[in-house]
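Checklist before submission:
- one chain only
- standard amino acids only
- sequence pasted in full

Submission:
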Amino acid sequence: MSDVTSASVPTDGVKAIEQRSARIAARRKALAIAFFAILASALATWLVFRSMIAIPILETGCIIITILSIRRIGGLFRDPWCGDQSVFFLMLAPGYWFAAGHLEYRNLVDVTYAVLASVFYGAVFSYFAMIVDPTARTVKAVVLITLVLSAFYGFSAVVITNTAIDKSAPSIFRAGVIEKIQAGSPSGHGGISYKLRLTPWGPVSGPSTVIVTKQQYDAARLGGIACPNLYVGGLGIRWYRIDACPVEPL
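Returned file contents:
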């Protein structure tokens, strides 16, 4: 009788495991609620304000999905052929495409600052992921992948936010067009991209390549002039875009 009684009473170790599992489950539930709140906020931001800030909000939601899927990431290293791991990639694929597609249209001067900000962003979310699910720390590759994924979304979020909230007046420079570059295909990812290679201007000490619209590409002439408009950046990260050159006084 005593053996049955002792076997039915959980040991301190079992209780500790159950309590930790309960805490992890509660944290994951809170994250799931936060994800749907973020998704609703992003949709409202876009539908009401038509603001690009909706993109960084959605990317934060993608990071939350990464954290919620962190055990699935770990499963890839323990059992690479586990079928349910495909769910993880299906959830993240649209976020990758969305983030990468918008990054291409941001011409940065202070690239280093943007990279440092994204690494910090990734480190914060990776640390948060390890708190939510401490068991993930046992697989170093999971920690590394979480950092890389968070930094990727972080870079996109930082760059897009920097331009979306920028209210500064541009400083206008003039540069010569030394090459016209057309890449990609209509059926490929992102379609056709149009770029101009410019002579040094303002803070850019060497030749630079800038992404432009098709209309700007068609209007540009080799040996002609293009006008980079330099902005301070809402987060202090300088960026520029090509705009129509002002008419010089006679």
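Reviewer check: Confidence is low (pLDDT under 50) at residues 4-9, 76-91.
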